[in-house]
Amino acid sequence: MLLCSVRGCAQPLTRTGGLYACPQKHSFDLSRRGYLNLLQPQDRRSKNPGDSAEAVAARRRLHDRGLTAPLLAAIQQITQPAPASHVLDAGCGDGFYLASLARLTGCAAHGIDISLPAIDAAARRYPTAEWIVANADRQIPYADASFSLVLSITARRNAPEFHRVLEPSGRLLVAIPAPDDLMELRGAERDRIDSTVAAFAPHFHLLAHQRATTTADLDADAVHDILLSIYRPLQPHPPAAGRITFSLDLLLFAPSPAAPR
User: Fold this and answer.
1) Helix (H, G, I), strand (E, B) or coil at 183
2) Chain CA centroid to CA 50, Å
């Protein structure tokens, strides 16, 4: 169930046609693309928060090349969403991973991102899922225990809110860049597994860890799309083309029963 995002409200939203409203008479119009914008002015740090339209388009081209298909397969294998289960992707971007899981498994897909261009792209490409513009770093506009699976794929890490919206028997997948991810462009980085597990420890305990890695020989256009779509520091002179490594550490968590909701 969706909740009103006006500060101090959090009342249930009821849909009537293309309008969502809460008992306090706060209302939100469904866009013509089919997504709902619940982002409040105080929940943005800039005029256009999140990924730009150019970054969203670049990442989509990488997905369309099939470069991330092995990563998707690994995510499906470790999460195994059940048919008709409700799955939330917090920081869903253009919706590729979430919508692909819905297509492959029959789960019900719900995506949140602070980027309006990202949600607009997701809604246009995957109209059967629910897409919400909101700041998942602050509050997830869904009722308690709404989901059996929450995804955070190189994105949001709001452990208290993830715990709140997950069913007690639910699962959380946190995907973080592995040390060798894009190492040809940025060099090898530190292992983030221990620090990530520690950050989630007050609310979750680790069930499984899997590293998903793939490589691809890319032309200059594809490498340029990678550069458009990432924010991490690069080497002084990254290659214009060549073999590139894509690698994620997949951390599957279960909610800790004693954690506060």
Assistant:
1) helix
2) 12
Task: Round to whole Å and give the CA distance between 15 and 28.
Answer: 9
- The tokens describing 58, both together, are 């670049």
C-alpha neighbours within 13 Å on the C-beta side of residue 51 = 28
Q: Check if the beta carbon of residue 136 is closer than 8 Å to that of residue 156.
A: yes
Question: Whose structure tokens read 């909610």?
Answer: 255
Domains, the chain, with CATH or none: 1-30 (no CATH), 33-255 (3.40.50.150)
Q: Which residues is 16 bridged to in the sheet?
A: 19
Q: Shortest CA distance to 175 belongs to which of 102, 56, 90?
A: 90
Rounded Cα–Cα distance for residues 192 and 57 (Å): 28
Per-residue pLDDT tens digits of the chain, which is 261 residues long:
899 999 999 999 999 999 999 999 999 999 999 999 999 887 776 777 889 999 999 999 999 999 999 999 999 999 999 999 999 999 999 999 999 999 999 999 999 999 999 999 999 999 999 999 999 998 999 999 999 999 999 987 899 999 999 999 999 999 999 999 999 998 878 899 999 999 999 999 999 999 999 999 999 999 999 998 887 767 777 888 999 999 999 999 999 987 666
Q: Which residues in 91-224 belong to E strands, given as ranges?
A: 108-113, 130-133, 147-153, 166-177, 204-218
Q: Are 249 and 192 in contact (CB under 8 A)?
A: yes
Beta bridge partners of 152: 174
d(CA 185, CA 247) in angstroms, rounded, equals 13
